[in-house]
Amino acid sequence: MHEQKQQITSLDPVWQRICDEAVQAVATEPLMGGLIHSSVLHHASLERALAFRFALKLASGEMSEQILREIADAAFVADPTLGQIARADIAAVYERDPACNRLLQPLLFLKGFQAVQAFRIGHWLWTQGRQDLALFVQMRVSEVFGVDIHPNAKLGCGIMIDHAHSIVIGETAVIGDNVSMLHSVTLGGTGKVDGDRHPKIGDGVLIGAGAKVLGNITIGHCSRIAAGSVVLSDIPPCKTVAGIPARVVGEAGCDQPSIMMNQVFDSTD
After folding, report:
1. Which domains occur in the chain, in start order?
2. Which residues form the signal peptide (predicted)?
């Protein structure tokens, strides 16, 4: 079994590194051994570890851990891109969050990453026509992680939600690739209008803490939304916006705001 696992992980450098970090973590803090073995070292792949964590965190008296584990395992088998996207999300957190210095941390400790991975399983259920089960996953993710993402929303890869407290993403929201946001962000509607009513966020956008982006509007790629802003209209690409209501206050300041995570506006930008 050990030789088989070594062969598998050698083909997956992200999973190999997570396992190596897990072994080191157990050596450093033996009291974490049970958690780390059950969550990481017991599994042959990242997908199996993610399914385990999904079931462990979301299980309740209403839905057992075993049933949730079977749901997650089925999702990863049916859609291999879920595992590929999870690796991109882990890399995004590691690259952009200065408090994250190991790939192991998002999997075990960071609720933003865990909430997004659970959402992705809920979204898969939604696309399979299993809306009630998808809504159950949404409810549990909101209860457990404080992150409320409708299962019909569409999220790209390389998503990083830092701190991830009080995040709300509506039903028809679309988020591109390599987007970063901080806590208390809302991508919401403006009333009771049905249909396509939520924001469309371009690739590489950085959304600051407490920002509210409301309505069926477009945020251009590689833009920055300042903390506490309320955005009610379209934003061109590569701009910085701030205020209530938000207005353009300068250029984005760099090619990839979501990666640089620079939230300070320089009037020379």
Report:
1. 11-147 (1.10.3130.10), 153-268 (2.160.10.10)
2. none
